[in-house]
Amino acid sequence: MTTFVPEPHLLESPRGRAWPLLPGTAPLSPPTPTPPSTADAVVVGAGPAGLAVASALWHLGVHDIVLLDRDGRACGRFLDRIDTLKQRVLRSPYQHHPGVEGYRDCELLDFARLHWSRLTDTERREVRMAQSGHRSVVPVDVFEAYCRHVSALHHVDERIWRTTVRQVIPEGDQVTVRGAGFAVTAPYAILCLGEERKDAPAHWTDGAPLPEGVGYWDEPVPDSAESLVVVGAGLSAAHLISNGLAAGRRVHWILRADAERYQCADVNASFFRAEGRARFDGTSWADRQQLMGGQRRASVMFEFRPLLQQAEADGWLSVYRGRTVAGLEAAGVAGVAGAAGAGRAAVRLADGERITGDHVVLALGTSVSNGEALLPSWAAGTRDGWPDLDERTLAYRNAPRVLAVGAAAGMVLGPAARNIDGHRVATARVAATVAAGLEGGRLAGESLELTSTGHAAHPAEEAAVHA
């Protein structure tokens, strides 16, 4: 079977272009320095998931919302991480975007076509590919401009406050969200917490802080580094490697798997469809764990393959496949001598070999933010790191006034829950549940009415029918 491998040039798109806002969508700032003390709903996190939730609530007539975000701008932290990696295109295709399910707003593909004159020839070809139903890559520049458009159009900007949330406290029919100098009480809170970087195992450093010369994927690589060691097998690692090669650095790549895994999407495409999500409906916890374990493996976009293979053949990239990391060390430690010890930091492998470089970057993936750090332990109800959520509403079973959108819903919606398109599916359920609860007093855990086909309908599906 012949596999089509896209060219690496698809990874490049201009960054920092000026994108005009459409008439009537000028962004506004919050009117007060601190959020109000009450609201109809509080959204914690203003990333792609939070933006989708706030926009969907706006369509459902829920306008009295408060968004609390550590960065203070829609998708700000998401985009900052992307720019740290110098990533120019998204892995998600044009069909995946933080728009609103069931409403015909201007979607991401529409937005790109509206700004056709600002696109490069390569970007235009990708738009045509998307229009034809084929896989395409989305420029980060287009995505950021679209997020600003969605945020302004749905009046999200004027409801975002920059702050750090410390506690989410469910109390009867209300939820209080607290932070430094503020407390907001609302009937509902929606946690859109995303994922946090996965730190190095404690035994790699004997419980001590990372040695000098070792950092993580979401931190800048020092300009002075002439050689780089990258630990990890995912997309972040691939960007770090390609950036290093472009800067003329020699790169060492350490991955635990026996071979690189190249894949278009971060999970199998079937999980983005209803039939894929149905594989999680009514199945056992063990079966769901097995499915998630098989789909959360690190992988790299196909576009990287020619670039990385050529660099390895030319000697600029050394790949250590099937190797296990045993520790991290500062350069000059015992056993590291001569040329091998010339770098500033070293990775010690399980077989005793040490790989050194001027800088070591750990790209170990991310872990789910399940709400446990904010909610009382009784409310989170976590199991194997996953929150206990109502499968119909994505509300915490022990705290039905608190709902989750994002990776935390993975054991309900499947691996696509962590993806932007998965956020839309989760948002449709959560926003409709909140709107229905505010309007009619129906709680998130109440039973759902049957549709005319005899299948249980999610509140989002009912809302879409009446929209």
TrEMBL record:
Q: Which domain of life is it from?
A: Bacteria
Q: Which GO terms describe its molecular function?
A: oxidoreductase activity
**Domain FAD/NAD(P)-binding intervals:** 40-259
Q: What ranges does the record give for the region Disordered, renumbered to this chain? A: 1-37
Which InterPro entries does the annotation name? Answer: FAD/NAD-bd_sf, FAD/NAD-binding_dom
Spell out the protein name for this chain.
NAD(P)-binding protein
Give the classification, highest ranks: Bacteria, Bacillati, Actinomycetota, Actinomycetes, Kitasatosporales
